[in-house]
Write a structure and sequence with these properties.
By secondary structure, this protein is of the alpha/beta class. The protein folds into 2 domains: about 350 residues, TIM Barrel (Alpha-Beta Barrel); about 140 residues, Chondroitinase Ac, Chain A, domain 3, CATH 2.60.220. Helix content is about 30%, strand content about 30%. It has an 8-stranded parallel sheet with strand order 11-10-9-6-5-4-13-12. The chain has a 6-stranded antiparallel sheet with strand order 14-19-20-25-22-23. Helix 7 packs parallel to helix 12.
């Protein structure tokens, strides 16, 4: 293990040495990683090309030790991961004020490169999960200079206040130093492709901070930057914003309570403005050194939550996006951490108003594969990332997840082009929690029915592969890509797929069905499927009455696979 650590340090030194004298990205080389609108979606561009982030996030403490991580890097690569989200903490970067140590970051970059992986750095500075514990000791020991949030009765919370300007500026200086270092050692290689600023921010326990600075601010005028944003964007504001603004009669100036009315929602908006403003200062300082995509992640509202403070108040939750956009223009994405089972509905909330889609924390396993397929295929996501993945990357529980990553990675260029041209859709189905047995994708003049694997008898007792009984433990998905007018590529698991004409005219038949794989971006054809492999229904007369041919595609196991189909009508 010590040998691995030494190798990492040596490689890190080599990174710094090789960067000397090189031109920063955008000056004589490829542009730095950035976001770019392509069609109706926003995509991540890395090394000048669209990039699909098949990512994972490490445990919060894992990346603090290169020695601890040494065995995990190759396992992540073997699992099909191409991007790792890893923490860099303020306390390690600036243990002494004004003195910076990037050895852990350099080792991380070296190890990622050695395993042909990209990195998204998670900056844990003032807050992590709404709490404050990753800041340096010299900040922790001086609450007069670096104030903590206060309860209503004046007790200190273990949470740095958003109104602490010295804290904000110190955090921003350290972040800027890190971004400058990343540019110096990595602008040409582009190992680091995104940055997360802080983690799941917001105030726990109370709707707002009651420190003296906060008390003065909430009694004062709503900043012009917010009221001007509301006026200039009135036609595209989210319903939650309009509802709050309506309580004050759509006033364009006044105190917070005058503009947004009395109550918890006003406190939440106040905190959202302060968190977003604080974090925009940090992001802007970093982008001044190295301008690559920056995002924040949200601790989302839970079913049992009744008010702000039950969840971190003022964070980038879906209902606060307008406030964050107004206060934090240098933050590019407002991303949800989704562990709740209603993944599609939650993700739709976070994709409103052209918010780019990325999921920095979620689940792995078969559920995670379905989540990732839906996010990438239906929502145009730039990527997906299960949390704490390194500890079970190659476990049996993650076999089908890893297979999805490998297959999606092999077809990444095709997926990305389909996202940009609008020739893609996806379905997400489950046997329980919640039960969603069937979904429909409308694409290229066809209604594509996606049904969870089932077994049973129907319409006269003939054995069928659609309808019947659905396993409550089953989870399935399908990504559909339209390759030409009547030809489609599917990546599916645990589903059966049928076709109807979108205009209701005629019946759709399967002209040719083949399975296969991609190698170096090229389709390698396997079996031609027919007979039992495509006959899903034997009650043909009933099927015809419903507009179906009785045939379809069978992804009958959790192990995902590719099928290409050419359709015709009769």
């Amino acid at each position: 293990m010590k040998k691995t650590l030494i190798c990492s340090i040596c490689a890190a030194a080599a990174i710094a040495f090789s960067a000397c004298g090189t031109s920063p990205a955008g000056q004589g080389g490829l542009p730095a990683p950035h976001l770019e609108k392509r069609g109706d979606v926003t995509q991540l561009i890395v090394e000048g090309r669209p990039y699909l982030a098949l990512a994972c996030e490490l445990g919060n403490s894992s990346s603090s030790s290169p020695d601890y991580m040494s065995d995990y890097w190759p396992q992540l690569k073997e699992a099909g991961v191409n991007t790792v989200l890893a923490v860099v903490s303020w306390e390690q970067v600036e243990p002494v004020e004004g003195s910076f140590d990037f050895s852990v970051l350099d080792a991380m970059i070296a190890d990622a490169r050695a395993n042909d992986l990209k990195l998204s750095v998670l900056w844990f500075g003032s807050w992590k999960n709404g709490m404050s514990s990753y800041h340096p000791v010299w900040v922790k020991e001086d609450p007069e200079r670096f104030p903590l949030a206060l309860t209503k009765d004046g007790r200190r919370l273990p949470i740095l206040s958003t109104l602490g300007t010295e804290t904000r500026d110190a955090d921003a200086r350290a972040f800027a130093a890190m971004m400058r270092h990343i540019r110096e050692v990595d602008a040409e290689e582009q190992t680091v492709i995104m940055i997360q600023v802080e983690n799941e921010v917001g105030l726990h326990g109370y709707t707002r901070d009651y420190c003296p600075e906060a008390e003065a601010a909430i009694a004062g005028q709503v900043p012009a930057g917010l009221t001007e944003y509301l006026q200039n964007n009135r036609d595209r504001l989210l319903p939650e914003t309009l509802e709050a603004w309506a309580k004050g009669g759509y006033m364009t100036s006044g105190t917070w309570k005058e503009v947004f009315g009395e109550g918890d929602r006003t406190d939440e908006i106040f905190m959202a403005w302060n968190y977003a403003s604080y974090m925009n200062t940090i992001a802007a300082a970093g982008k001044a050194e190295y301008d690559i995509p920056m995002f924040v992640n949200a601790w989302i509202v839970q079913p049992e939550d009744r008010r702000p403070g039950n969840y971190p108040s003022g964070g980038p939750q879906a209902q606060n996006h307008d406030i964050w956009r107004a206060a934090a223009p240098d933050i590019d994405m407002l991303c949800p951490d989704i562990y709740l089972p209603e993944f599609p509905d939650i993700l739709r909330m976070y994709s409103r108003a052209d918010n780019p889609v990325f999921i920095p924390e979620s689940r792995a396993g078969q559920n995670g594969a379905a989540n990732a397929a839906f996010a990438i295929g239906e929502m145009g996501a730039i990527g997906y990332s299960p949390f704490g993945f390194e500890n079970g990357a190659l476990s049996a529980a993650n076999e089908t997840f890893n297979s999805f990553y490998h297959k999606a990675g092999s077809a990444a260029d095709i997926i990305l082009e389909a996202q940009a041209t609008g020739n893609i859709g996806a379905a997400w189905v489950k046997g329980s929690d919640p039960a969603v047995y069937k979904q429909e994708i409308e694409l290229g003049g066809y209604k594509i029915g996606v049904e969870l694997v089932s077994s049973g008898m129907r319409n006269g007792g003939a054995p069928q592969l659609t309808g019947g009984t659905y396993s409550p433990d089953a989870v399935g998905y399908a990504i559909a890509i339209r390759e030409s007018e009547d030809s489609f590529l599917f990546l599916g698991s645990n589903v059966r797929i049928t076709f109807l004409p979108a205009d209701g005219k005629g019946t759709v038949g399967l002209a040719k069905v083949t399975e296969g794989e991609f190698a170096d971006g090229k389709w390698i054809e396997g079996r031609w499927l027919n007979g039992d492999q495509i006959q899903l229904r034997y009650d043909v007369l009933y099927a015809v009455d419903e507009g179906y041919s009785g045939q379809g595609l069978n992804f009958g196991t959790p192990e995902p696979g590719f099928i290409k189909v050419q359709l015709y009508r009769y």
